[in-house]
Amino acid sequence: MGLIQRFTALFRQRSTDVDVATTSDETPKLQRISDISNLFTANRHRLEVVRKSRDMYKTDMRVRRIVSTLARDATKGGFTIKSTNARAVEVAERMVERVNLRDHLDDYMRLTLRDGDTFLEVGVNAQAEICELTRKPTLEMRRASDEFDRFSDPSRAYWWADETWWGMEVPSNAVWFAQWQIIHARWDHDEGSRYGAPLFAAATSAFKRYTEGETDIAVRRKTRAGMKYLHVVEGASEPELEAYKERNQDSLTNPHLAVADFYTSKAGSISAIQGDAKLEEIGDVVHHIRSFWTASPVPMSLIGYGQDLNRDVLDKQKEQYDEELPVVTKWNEDEIVRPLIDLQLLFDGILPESAAYEVVWASKKVLTPAMLRDAADAALRLRTLGMPDELILQILAPFLPGVDVSAIVLAAGSDTQRIADAAVGL
Known about the structure:
It is a single chain. By secondary structure, this protein is mostly helical. It has 15 helices and 10 strands. Helix 2 packs across helix 3 and helix 6 (204-224) packs antiparallel against helix 9 (283-293).
């Protein structure tokens, strides 16, 4: 028996131990013509949206900056795994180090925000160790779930074929994957649907409007912003006008002349015609930019559009963004980190439910003297209220980036006085 069959049998055995409750004797099948039509429409729409989102990411620096900033901030400074089960922590940490998950997590997040989905193939060696993660092409991978997004055959859950494939049957040259072989992370996923949606899926129309508006403004400035001159040579015939332009050609075309002299033998004048005086009117373009930006959790002011804000509004936007980040970080944990850890624990014969582990995310903030001072003051106040010193350390942990509170408690052992000194000393 090959490795894939061996591990698939392991998961099939585990799945049979779970009682399944259904509302009918048979799962409904996709048979209606309208369902088939909706399936083709959904696939075509997803293909168009992902391609548009990729084009936005590729051609617009604002989109790239938003996606990169959100991915970087959401993954923070990495994570640690905490559990009372020391073996489970060791197994999980070794797996995280083998696949270099902490370094690649922001890339997985960034590409998921761009495409809406990330398909990570799990590579397992003969020792049942996850030793490799490879990202498969988003538009070439298909999820073989039913209309309720359930796998009828977990051993054939995903398949990989050409992006341009359209048909009712899976192509004969498709590569199949078992359910456990693929970690499928889906952004903005609706219950029952097969795939997620890109971060800017709903902003494609606004993106098109403001990019077209910016192009129009650039062309208008180039063609209508410059100053022009009207030369009036009274009574001159067409040949005389041509001779006038020929005599003054250097003054008319040389951009480096600070002073231009014109000569004519007839009565005449030169009038300056100003360029378009309304080129600064770009309120409609700004409106479309702001409409586009509502799809992003990252405030405009953090990217470069904060010139119209005062400090109070800026602080409020930053506060809202900081409140949004834990939600995105939790998505990272639920969609990528935990499925990988659970899979490795199962390979080692440990039920994830029994391990009761916790993923603790570190802060990207740099620890400052002011933060230490505030933490020490908080520790004193909490101790005055009679709170246990170990609990005080756990409460202060999220506010002390780079400080391993569990290591402090472990080093202190059962000496409560040393724990108390550590809490106050922070």
